[in-house]
Automatic annotation (TrEMBL):
The keyword Metal-binding does not apply. The gene is LOC117567202. Residues 61-210 form the Lipase domain. Belongs to the AB hydrolase superfamily. Lipase family. This is Uncharacterized protein LOC117567202.
Length: 344
């Protein structure tokens, strides 16, 4: 898989730079720069190319609106008041925004399932931003457009705010590459606007690690779910870092859901947490090495979508997962696990 190859190649920020510059996609900026130079363009060619790429990415993106779990509008990223009226979404509504990952779209099963759960529990308006055209090719092409996609999403959110939507009633979710986007978008909106809640699921590591980013700066309440060692980030700087399964590095259920892998299981577990309790351990498992503080866990504490963020529970939270759907452990199973810890 390209993720594992990238995980080996991308060891530090210097290698990231070299890798990106040396292995661009076929119609890379360097190749196109030579074409411009042949036609007499000189120093301004880089700026022209940057604007062209940014424009091309924006043209391929769409914004999909859902009200009561029904798609009411699919439009370009340049929103206007008439479009918003057509969507049925009101400025007084809570707003939820979903961002997908590489080789994914807003039509993926997990995206539609999450939209369904958000529509039922959170209500209001759900928006999925689709950049599947650029996400459908190589990971490097998607990665090289990270800033352009970020800028486009920031523009969409600012447009919503200008039309009356309240960032204090906003929730942003990103899976994998979309998780990195969610953090970058939240940080880019500041200091003018701060989103209320941001959740990410196994945000991508390849191309981003090991550069340290303070993801807690992305919003008022930022919680990040971690599920894999190869595709997910190893930067744990959110207000809450929820370590699923085996120390957030792997999931037992890969044995029964091999096609999803530990990375893909993250979003399934997150969606299941709307309807099933995923209990947190009171203390970190002995085998989980951590250099950051674990959260103080109240009795019977469960993780998942949390509209009313408890500021008393901050830091790393360890949540064991099971072999089979819906991947949670019962209270009795959790007690047996504690007994195993004590015997060790």
């Amino acid at each position: 898989m390209i993720y594992s190859k990238l995980g080996i190649l991308i060891c530090n920020s210097t290698l990231i730079t070299i890798f990106i510059l040396s292995i661009h996609y076929a119609d890379s900026k360097l190749d196109q720069k030579q074409i411009f130079l042949k036609h007499g363009t000189r120093y301004e060619s880089t700026d022209i190319l940057a604007r062209a790429f940014k424009s091309d990415v924006r043209k391929t993106m769409t914004v999909q609106f859902f009200k009561n779990n029904t798609k009411t509008l699919e439009t370009s990223v340049d929103l206007n008041e008439n479009m918003l009226k057509t969507s049925g979404c009101l400025p007084s509504d809570k707003i939820s925004i979903v961002l997908h990952g590489w080789i994914q779209s807003c039509s993926d099963e997990w995206a539609l399932s999450l939209i369904d759960r958000l529509s039922f529990y959170r209500k209001g308006c759900v928006i999925c931003i689709d950049y599947s055209t650029v996400a459908s090719s190589s990971y490097m092409r998607l990665y090289s457009n990270f800033e352009h996609i970020t800028e486009a999403i920031v523009g969409i959110i600012i447009g919503l705010i200008q039309h009356g939507f309240d960032p204090n009633r906003a929730y942003l979710f990103g899976f994998s590459f979309g998780g990195q986007l969610a953090s970058a978008v939240g940080r880019s909106l500041q200091p003018h606007f701060t989103l209320q809640n941001i959740d990410t699921c196994d945000m991508a590591g390849p191309g981003f690690d090991p550069i340290a980013v303070d993801h807690s700066k992305a919003g008022k309440n930022v919680q990040c779910f971690h599920s894999s060692r190869d595709k997910g980030t190893l930067i744990h700087s959110c207000h809450r870092n929820i370590m699923l399964g085996s120390c957030g590095l792997s999931q037992p259920s890969v044995a029964s859901q091999l096609h999803l892998g530990s990375h893909g299981l993250c979003v399934d577990i997150y969606i299941n947490s709307f309807d099933y309790p995923f209990y947190a351990l009171k203390s970190p498992p002995p085998e989980c090495i951590s250099f950051t503080a674990a959260a103080k866990i109240p009795d019977d504490y469960t993780v998942g979508y949390d509209e009313h963020f408890n500021k008393q529970v901050m830091g790393k939270i360890y949540v064991p997962t099971s072999l089979h759907y819906p991947y949670n452990l019962s209270k009795k199973e959790l007690q047996l696990l504690y007994m195993d810890f004590k015997r060790e």
